[in-house]
Amino acid sequence: TNANSSKNDIFLAKLISSISDTNTSINSIVNNNSIQIYPNPASSSLSINLYKEGRYCLYNLMGQIMQQGSLKAGDNIINIDALPAGMYECGIIAEGQQMVKKVVVMR
Predict the structure, then answer these.
(1) Residues 105, 83: Cα–Cα separation, whole Å
(2) Which residues touch 32 (CB under 8 Å, ≥6 apart)?
(3) What pLDDT, on a 0 to 100 scale, did the predictor assign at position 104?
(4) pLDDT, tens digit, for every residue of 36-61?
(5) Angle at the Cα of 47 (from 98 to 58), degrees rounded to 5?
(6) Contact yes or no for 78/45 (Cβ under 8 A)
């Protein structure tokens, strides 16, 4: 729907402005298996498997940044113990490409 599309556009704009730097240009949305985020739902940690170095940002559904950081190529374990239970958007930027996936944190 248009409302969901608009909400996603706003989220992506916030994501790009918060975790990209001046040398990064966003070329396309990655919608394949080159980036894996698991388990989902998660309880204490989130695994992110990435093909290149990048950055991640976890947002709550109000658009607030809850956690962010750098990612190395390969497997990354992100501690999410400090996050309250709920649904989050996990945005990842790597080599000018971006992806956003919903992540559920359960306690």
Answers:
(1) 8
(2) none
(3) 97
(4) 999 999 999 999 999 889 999 999 99
(5) 50
(6) yes
pTM value surpassing 0.90: no
DSSP string, 17-86: HHH--TT----EE--STTEEEE-SSBSSEEEEEESS-EEEEEEETTS-EEEEEEE-SEEEEEE-TTSPSE
Q: What integer pLDDT is reported at residue 86 of this predicted model?
A: 96
Long-range contacts of 29-33 (CB under 8 A, 24+ apart): 29/97, 29/98, 29/99, 29/100, 30/92, 30/94, 30/97, 30/98, 30/99, 31/99
Structure token digits, residue 80:
């999410």
11 phi and psi angles, rounded to 5 deg = -60, -45
Predicted pLDDT at 1: 55
Q: Which two tokens stand for residue 15?
A: 């994501």
